[in-house]
Design brief:
Layout (H helix, E strand, L loop, with lengths): L3 H9 L3 E7 L5 E7 L1 E3 L4 E7 L3 H8 L2 E7 L6 E10 L9 H11 L7 H11 L1 E14 L8
Antiparallel strand pairs: 1-2, 1-5, 3-4, 4-7, 5-6, 6-7
Helix pairs in contact: 3-4
Length: about 150
């Protein structure tokens, strides 16, 4: 099977994942996310709003998992993570706004800072930082039977 570095490389080669958090009722909450990977810190960063389910859950319970698909169904990595949330963006240019700008700039070109900051404040956005503690999964060049 895959070693840890192969799994981390799979995570680093993508920007799309499924984020799992645990609701207060004990059920998993799954959502598709875009993320920015920081290999040296083993951290994925995600933008969300404070009132979305994932944002509300992760502000109170730091347990999360990130599922990243490989090039075919039988290749994937799961990162068990400790989540930390930034402050909610409240003032143009505050730490939350600047970090959100960093994250969004990885996906969208030509962001105008002042307008962007205002959007983040109005949406009550924050950054979720997912610190990877453990990875597992399967990395196969081709699916079985190919």
């Amino acid at each position: 099977m895959a070693d840890e570095q192969q799994l981390l490389d799979l995570i680093g080669d993508s920007r799309q994942a499924i984020l799992a958090a645990v609701t207060s009722a004990g059920y998993p909450h799954l959502t598709n996310v875009l993320y920015v990977w920081e290999a040296e810190r083993r951290t994925a960063r995600v933008s969300t709003t404070a009132d979305r389910v994932k944002g509300r859950i992760l502000q109170h319970d730091s347990h999360a998992a990130l599922h990243v698909s490989g090039p075919h169904f039988w290749s994937y990595a799961v990162a068990e993570c400790d989540a930390q949330t930034s402050a909610i963006a409240t003032t143009p240019g505050d730490d939350a706004c600047r970090e959100l700008f960093e994250v969004h700039s990885a996906f969208y070109d030509g962001l105008e800072e002042d307008a962007f900051y205002q959007q983040m404040i109005e949406a009550k956005r924050l950054v979720v930082r997912l610190q990877v503690r453990k990875v597992y999964g399967v990395v196969l060049e081709e699916p079985p039977g190919a």
